[in-house]
Amino acid sequence: MRKLVLFLLLGFLIYPAFGQVPGSFNYQAIIRDASGNVKANISTTIDISILQGSVSGTSVYSESNSLTTNAFGLVSLQIGSKNPTSFSLIDWSKGSYFIKVAVDGTEMGTSQLLSVPFALYAKTSGSSIPGPKGEKGDTGAIGPQGLKGEKGDAGIAGPKGAKGDTGVIGATGKSAYQSWLNLGNTGTEATFIASLKGASGATSIKDTAISTTNTWSSSKITAQLALKAQQSSLDSLIAKMKILNSFVLAGGAVTDADGNDYNVVKIGSQIWMLENLKTTKFNNGDLIPVTSAGDVTNEIDTTNGNYPKYQWAYNNDNQNVAKYGRLYTWWTATDSRNICPTGWHVPSNTEFNTLKTFIGSDTTIGGALKEAGFVHWLSPNKGATNSTGFTALPAGYRTYGSYFSIGQSASFWTTTADPTPVNTKLLAYFYTLSNSSANLTNVSYRKVWGLSVRCLKN
């Protein structure tokens, strides 16, 4: 192989090689562009001239070849085959000869033919009688192994596959009330709920009904207290049955982009998730970023258009997620990629007000939404009955790298920004519940806070 020839104007690289064929000789070249890329399967014209004496000597032979490169950019031709008569007149024994090459009309360079093919030289030499065949030379030593090339760069990842079709919606299950009717019973839903109560027992007493003017035996008092406890247990069972019936009417469960399943509940005309959102992905599969503990560098929203979109587990401890869900900035909750499952959305201020209107009294709304008892809420968990089945849990909140109030408060984003011109870029509305109050409070505060999300069915 001859040395690499680089033609800067057209950007070809040529590697010529010679073989020994009587009456002509082989010429091969690999066509590359200036970046070293092979020019495969292209048409090209290669002009060859044989010059005598010097690089600017007299041309004693020329030919033009129209060729097509192969898959490796290689072209092959036999110099002399185009004009054999003219080629045979070259006297190879007289002085030096040079080969000039042009590709598609552009001269690539001129190089001396340092080794004339033997058969061609013999043809014009003083004697046509070949000398004796020489002895076979010794086999040369094996050369050292070349260096291993560097590992190539990883290929570009393939495109993301198309989202699959939405599955067929299952049939709506029967409510507990409908199942009761199918057993042959008749009556309204109220009649069904009343039928869950047992037969009336002895008249119970209220906590304040024991009069100092009556004399009651200890057994009488024990019986009355047992009856009161039984009635309380029955009332709790009826409340749970109402929630179960609402769950069945709501259509069962729903799954987010992470594969987390959620129970749902029907409250009035609305269907809500029974649990706080846990997803780490938008509904299109994009990951929602998370910052490390205490990192507030990228969490400050200003008028320069920095809209932080993050999610966190309370205290950056993923063990809290199963119970309390994750905390999200307002920018995350309102992103167009949607953090709620398909067919669900983050509610607006107006939609939360619809929930409030259905429940009724402002002084008891919070209690109707909070999980009752002290498994998750700290005392006093004022007014908590969870009569709606909403089952709000005290997930706390995050602000500028710190976490507060788990066990004491639950706060849920709405999509509604504060309309006040000076605040609309910084503040948004959310609803909050407290262990010390039975109210549901609407508050406007920083969009960068990390709060819970409850999704509402479209």
Task: Please give a structural write-up.
By secondary structure, this protein is α+β, with helices and mostly antiparallel strands. The protein folds into two domains: 5-124, Sandwich (Immunoglobulin-like), CATH 2.60.40; 236-457, no CATH class. Helix content is 18%, strand content 23%. It has helices at 84-88, 118-124, 176-182, 189-195, 218-250, 321-324, 330-333, 349-359, 365-369; strands spanning 5-7, 12-14, 17-18, 25-30, 43-52, 58-68, 74-79, 97-103, 106-112, 253-255, 261-267, 270-273, 311-312, 327-328, 344-345, 397-399, 402-404, 409-417, 427-434, 441-446, 456-457. The strands form eight sheets. It has a four-stranded antiparallel sheet, with no helix packed on it. Residues 1-22, 201-213 and 246-250 have low confidence and may be disordered.
